[in-house]
Fold each of these.
Amino acid sequence: MRLQVLATVSVVAMTASACSSSKPCAGVGVTSQIGVMFLQRGYTDLAGASYELCAGDKCVKDHLDQEDITQVGLRLPNDVDPDPGTVRFRVTPKGSNRPEIDASYDVKLTRQSDGCGGGAYSEGLAFTKEGGLTTKIPPSVSAAWRKHIRSLASPAASS
């Protein structure tokens, strides 16, 4: 009976970790996706503006809040083709039919291992008024993101 219970616990532990080994998997849960860090500096009021982020035939659409930096993400299917393709980012001000931002960039997705033999493909981009859409994250975007994360961690510090 004891052997059967131990065998069941081992099978459950391996299944729960999504690995074929008894070692824990560090990256379980990695997802294929495209992400854009959008630095709104230099634009007038974009609160309520709509955005669209597309890669291939997959798109996500939503509305922006008025903030210094926004992170926009598009989940991709697990079987996404990692070969170079075009990412398109559009922002249309509230009440307008014409986008203020319409930028495209060709990207090759990068594989991220889950530590268990699986993984996902993704790429991070940044958009600034000065630099457009790029995979080279400018220091101004990194600084704005750090400031944003610190403000979330310590709301009193941002006052």
Amino acid sequence: MNQVPAVRHSVVRTVLAMTARDLRVFRRSLVMNSVRIVLQPLLFVFVFAYVLPSIGSGVGGGAPGSGGLTFSTVMVPGLIGSTMIMQSMAAIIFPLVMELSGPGGIEDRALAPVPVQVIGVQKIITAAVEGLVAGLLVIPVVMLVHAGGQAPDIGVSNWPLLIVVMLSGALFAASLGMYLGTVINPRQVQVLFTLVMFPAMMLGCVYFTWDSLSGVRWLQFAVLANPMVYLNEGLRTALTPQLDHMAVWVFMLVLVAGSALFSWFAIRTFTRRVTA
């Protein structure tokens, strides 16, 4: 009768140990990881929130869907969300592809005294944590870099909603990353990020609100296939409620259901690849 709690305790300890190991590796290269994570959002806010308004290009105020607010107000939630998704996916796709394609890459983890499915869950959790850390690292950069009069009007209006959106968004991206990492050819990983992730970011409601696409109706419906849209709209709802945004139930349904569905798919394909 006492064996079941002991087994559960052993599983939890093993998962925590593997997670701590992965996060320790991430921490050892924290400086380089931080530079890599922050560089792209920094360049975007530097150009669109500082350089262009400073030279009088007309960019800055009155962005699409902003109701006259600064462009950086629209852009900040989108940059946080896109950074979280890119980092969560990269944190699991690249290491997983190397482990599954290289000799002896995954065997050390498979020998752990836990089911293979638990190892998959641990990988998703670790990647989600790295995505959350990336989102937090970006916040001060996108908030502070702007021209005079172009400061983003950002404030947390709903803490529970913000926490749920960030957690479910990071888990969604991590589980999607694991699924892709177990089904795509290793030689196609770079193609995935070049031909899929870049267009997904450009059309993921990073630089405009979903509601502002109402004038291009076909595109407004087409971008709904992009998971980034729902995370960015969720962050806008929590951080910039003054902007028009997607209905709460829509993005919450997609983020929570997507996290559960892709976690199930990802763990199945991961288990099949490891035990094959």
